[in-house]
Amino acid sequence: FLSHSLQAKMSRPVQARRLEGIDKNIWVEFVKLAATYSKVNLGQGFPDFPPPDFLTEALTRALGGGNHMLHQYTRAFGHPPLVKVLAQFFEKLLGRDLDPMTNVMVTVGAYQALFCCFQALVDEGDEVIIIEPFFDCYEPMVKMAGGTPVFVPLRPNPPKDGKWMSSADWQLDPAELASKFSERTKAIVLNSPNNPLGKVFSRGELGLIAELCVKHDVLCISDEVYEWLVYDGKQHIRMASLQGMWDRTVIIGSAGKTFSVTGWKVGWVVGPDRLLQHLRTVHQNSVYHCATIAQEAVAQGFQRELMLYGKPESYFVQLPKELQEKRDWLVQSLDGVGMKPIIPEGTYFLVADISQFKSDVPDVPNSDEPYDYRFAKWMVKNKGLAAIPLSAFYSEAHKNNYTNFIRFCFAKEEATLKAANDILQKWKQEKTS
Ligand code: PMP
């Protein structure tokens, strides 16, 4: 019996081939480091302030309001009140009629929306263009679908006034971008406003991408989760509103970012039925649907925002105002200690140049760890301040060109940002004394 059970030990490889090379994940390591060492965590992107009262009240009402069916399954592709109000909202934003049942689908966060896109639209051997720096999950998701990611970097131009750089100074080289399109290209992933830089793509930049998409018959997966977080009077322009793009674009959004409830994991896609029908196939055969009660509360949140659209009381007007102030505080704090901030036009992230700090961070002999990783680890361990190395948002081939930056998240309470400022001020005094 014993020898039989020994023989029964599995020896064949268990891991599916599609997981090869995608097992590493920056967040596992840096979330753990932040939890262990940080006094102030400006690393992972989530607000530490409460969501708006109207939203938590909507959730409480949904829980206690006597409709016990809100605890049961709802429609697989989206709770009807939510898809209806999303359709109404996006009709306004896009200036076209939308069918809530076929042009909208609710997902488990924008993350699952992305997963559905790649699984439904990318085949073995297809190429998918990804603009660097990028939200890190795009690359493994393309690979899991059997596709090949093709990277094209935003290239930094020196700032004109010689002082702070803006995320707008990071631009695509039009010839380089065009060279990445071929008959193998199935899709391009666009993330505007962009995580991690905070870049908000201009109409001209979007027009260039749109032209190439039309010319080469390519899809656009448009990750717009930070659509409301745009500063200094800038405007978020929707790729799907450009000529020829509606028919080939999937818009992705997130209640997590929109209403400051990242833990609810409610996301959505908006697009033409001819694309969404395939996303529905992936969704119904994997996740089926996302928590009914959270969808109900998000639907009520959108109803309120629809009523107050463009008015000063609207959360979509108030949140960016508050975040812009927070951005400006963090800019001042970082500048004080000599970390040169790149002013973000959108999102709640800010990238700063740390090239002046090389003498602070001890060299690790024989380590091939990039400087920004070593810096971020050293900073959280020695200063108690957590941030994320920028090279984590680049492909293996390009990451060594971008190791002088780290990313901070400023969606934080005043007290958190003050505590970060105290750390930076103290650090500055130590440096100068
Ligand atoms: N896209 C981008 C660009 C993001 O930054 C994030 C979250 N950090 C997501 C998608 C995922 O959003 P969700 O939390 O709704 O899944």
From TrEMBL:
Residues 39-420 form the Aminotransferase class I/classII large domain. Pfam families: Aminotran_1_2. GO terms for biological process: kynurenine metabolic process. Its cofactor is pyridoxal 5'-phosphate. Coiled coil: none annotated. Keywords: Aminotransferase, Lyase, Pyridoxal phosphate, Transferase. SUPFAM superfamilies: PLP-dependent transferases. InterPro entries: Aminotransferase_I/II_large (IPR004839), Kynurenine-oxoglutarate_AT (IPR051326), PyrdxlP-dep_Trfase (IPR015424), PyrdxlP-dep_Trfase_major (IPR015421), PyrdxlP-dep_Trfase_small (IPR015422). GO terms for cellular component: mitochondrion. Belongs to the class-I pyridoxal-phosphate-dependent aminotransferase family. Homodimer. PANTHER family: FI04487P, KYNURENINE--OXOGLUTARATE TRANSAMINASE 1. This is KAT1 transaminase. It comes from Rhadina sibilatrix.
